[in-house]
Write a structure and sequence with these properties.
With 100 residues, the protein is an alpha+beta fold. The protein has one domain (3-93). The protein contains three helices and five strands, in the order βααββββα. It has helices at residues 7-17, 21-30, 84-93, and strands spanning 3-4, 36-37, 49-55, 61-68, 74-81. A hairpin with a 5-residue loop joins β3 and β4. The radius of gyration is 13 Å and the shape is globular. The protein starts with a strand and ends in a 7-residue tail after the last helix.
Length: 100
Protein backbone atom coordinates (compact mmCIF):
# COMPACT_ATOMS: atom_id res chain seq x y z
CA UNK A 1 0.00 0.00 0.00
CA UNK A 2 1.38 3.37 -1.03
CA UNK A 3 0.19 6.95 -1.13
CA UNK A 4 0.64 8.20 -4.69
CA UNK A 5 0.38 11.85 -5.66
CA UNK A 6 1.33 12.79 -9.20
CA UNK A 7 3.56 15.82 -9.67
CA UNK A 8 0.69 17.63 -11.42
CA UNK A 9 -1.69 17.02 -8.51
CA UNK A 10 0.99 17.88 -5.96
CA UNK A 11 1.58 21.20 -7.72
CA UNK A 12 -2.17 21.94 -7.75
CA UNK A 13 -2.49 21.04 -4.07
CA UNK A 14 0.32 23.41 -3.18
CA UNK A 15 -0.54 26.38 -5.40
CA UNK A 16 -4.34 26.28 -5.48
CA UNK A 17 -5.30 24.72 -2.13
CA UNK A 18 -2.23 25.25 0.10
CA UNK A 19 -2.33 21.55 1.05
CA UNK A 20 0.76 19.39 1.50
CA UNK A 21 1.34 15.64 1.35
CA UNK A 22 1.85 15.74 5.12
CA UNK A 23 -1.60 17.35 5.56
CA UNK A 24 -3.14 14.46 3.61
CA UNK A 25 -1.25 11.86 5.65
CA UNK A 26 -2.48 13.52 8.85
CA UNK A 27 -6.07 13.34 7.59
CA UNK A 28 -5.78 9.63 6.84
CA UNK A 29 -4.32 9.11 10.33
CA UNK A 30 -7.07 11.10 12.08
CA UNK A 31 -10.01 9.76 10.03
CA UNK A 32 -12.60 8.17 12.29
CA UNK A 33 -15.36 7.26 9.86
CA UNK A 34 -15.93 5.51 6.56
CA UNK A 35 -15.03 6.61 3.06
CA UNK A 36 -17.86 7.82 0.86
CA UNK A 37 -18.11 7.14 -2.87
CA UNK A 38 -18.64 9.94 -5.35
CA UNK A 39 -21.70 8.75 -7.29
CA UNK A 40 -22.24 11.92 -9.33
CA UNK A 41 -22.38 11.00 -13.01
CA UNK A 42 -19.69 13.45 -14.13
CA UNK A 43 -17.31 12.22 -11.39
CA UNK A 44 -17.64 8.46 -11.91
CA UNK A 45 -14.37 6.61 -12.36
CA UNK A 46 -13.18 3.02 -12.53
CA UNK A 47 -12.09 2.28 -9.87
CA UNK A 48 -14.59 4.39 -7.98
CA UNK A 49 -13.60 7.77 -6.53
CA UNK A 50 -13.76 7.86 -2.72
CA UNK A 51 -13.58 10.77 -0.30
CA UNK A 52 -13.71 11.72 3.35
CA UNK A 53 -13.42 14.72 5.65
CA UNK A 54 -10.86 14.72 8.45
CA UNK A 55 -8.63 17.09 10.36
CA UNK A 56 -4.96 17.86 10.02
CA UNK A 57 -2.86 18.08 13.17
CA UNK A 58 -3.66 21.81 13.16
CA UNK A 59 -7.44 21.22 13.19
CA UNK A 60 -8.05 22.13 9.55
CA UNK A 61 -10.85 20.00 8.07
CA UNK A 62 -9.91 18.81 4.60
CA UNK A 63 -11.89 16.92 2.01
CA UNK A 64 -9.55 14.27 0.61
CA UNK A 65 -10.51 12.68 -2.73
CA UNK A 66 -8.75 9.56 -3.98
CA UNK A 67 -8.88 6.30 -5.89
CA UNK A 68 -7.93 2.97 -4.35
CA UNK A 69 -6.45 0.66 -7.00
CA UNK A 70 -6.29 -3.15 -7.13
CA UNK A 71 -2.94 -3.12 -5.28
CA UNK A 72 -4.54 -1.03 -2.52
CA UNK A 73 -2.42 1.96 -3.51
CA UNK A 74 -4.08 5.30 -2.75
CA UNK A 75 -3.99 7.75 -5.68
CA UNK A 76 -4.81 11.27 -4.50
CA UNK A 77 -7.00 13.25 -6.91
CA UNK A 78 -7.35 16.37 -4.77
CA UNK A 79 -7.59 17.70 -1.23
CA UNK A 80 -8.81 21.06 0.01
CA UNK A 81 -10.52 22.76 2.93
CA UNK A 82 -13.98 21.20 3.18
CA UNK A 83 -16.92 23.54 2.78
CA UNK A 84 -20.01 23.42 5.02
CA UNK A 85 -22.04 21.40 2.49
CA UNK A 86 -19.30 18.74 2.16
CA UNK A 87 -19.03 18.51 5.96
CA UNK A 88 -22.84 18.15 6.18
CA UNK A 89 -22.96 15.42 3.53
CA UNK A 90 -20.10 13.54 5.16
CA UNK A 91 -21.70 13.81 8.59
CA UNK A 92 -25.04 12.57 7.28
CA UNK A 93 -23.85 9.62 5.21
CA UNK A 94 -20.89 8.52 7.28
CA UNK A 95 -23.25 8.38 10.29
CA UNK A 96 -21.29 10.67 12.58
CA UNK A 97 -22.15 13.77 14.61
CA UNK A 98 -22.28 17.07 12.77
CA UNK A 99 -18.81 18.45 12.01
CA UNK A 100 -18.43 22.11 12.97
Amino acid sequence: MALIISSKVLQKLHTKHNVSELDIIQCFASREHCFLEDSRENHKTDPVTKWFVAETDFGIKLKVVFILDDNLDIHIKTAYVANDNEKRIYAKYAKLPKLN
